[in-house]
């Protein structure tokens, strides 16, 4: 059900302004990548505090890209000036594409998509960055499900080259063309996939991370597993990666994919114990490892 995009025809309708909903790790990462690639961006969240948090993340990412020599300091400031920050849906109405990266709750996403459907031009494409929810069900809250699709980025957005373009049975060709074009303009590789638990990447990635959690639950050392995975050639070990993804996000994906597996997995329960204590990984300062100023410390 996955297609590399050589068979998707372009060009599509032009996208100049991208609206991103949700100023968390993924929303801010997507907004930064879009501004970095020259799009005008508007980033929306529900209150000023969340918007300010997203803005701080984006400024840090852009300035660190400049420090690493990816772009010049003036270019980084020019890209930052392309981003408008808001709490009002009125500022999104002229966007050609909306990428939603809010909380992973179907009813909340449906409300948001229904509102966007009413407020935005029918030409605008509405995409969700969901890792696990059904695009068809999200689209069913709108009058134009043909313009609703998934656009699944990986964390960290600036670095990960693949983006899954998720087509529900209701998604139209025009929306897919727009998304494939935008992903290419972001300098990334689009992979068109049908919807189904975990799409393609998480369906491959989660069994690997699942086995690591199973070994920890059996008493193995976090660092022994991660060190071995790195020696094998992975950029980071599976447990550090879980911390980076966020244990709450991982739990949500694991639940969806778990429905495919005949073997019961200890992962959801194990993650839930940590989540209940407020240990969500890198973003809360503690998961499998302790984290300080975004840097991994010793394992817990
Ligand atoms: N904008 C643009 N480019 C930037 C940048 C920015 N803000 N910041 C850094 N860069 C560039 C750097 O110049 C560097 O370029 P190069 O590769 O050409 O040299 C590159 O990006 C990497 O920069 P870093 O130094 O930050 O990266 P590291 O080499 O230290 O690697 C890592 C860190 C990218 C986190 C790496 O360990 C990694 O790839 N880990 C695995 C990540 C992964 O698997 N993610 C998937 C998670 S699953 C998911 O998200 C799905 C969900 O549904 C659950």
TrEMBL record:
<comment type="similarity">
    <text>Belongs to the enoyl-CoA hydratase/isomerase family.</text>
</comment>
<comment type="similarity">
    <text>In the N-terminal section; belongs to the enoyl-CoA hydratase/isomerase family.</text>
</comment>
<feature type="domain" description="3-hydroxyacyl-CoA dehydrogenase NAD binding">
    <location>
        <begin position="17"/>
        <end position="195"/>
    </location>
</feature>
<feature type="domain" description="3-hydroxyacyl-CoA dehydrogenase C-terminal">
    <location>
        <begin position="198"/>
        <end position="290"/>
    </location>
</feature>
<protein>
    <recommendedName>
        <fullName>enoyl-CoA hydratase</fullName>
    </recommendedName>
</protein>
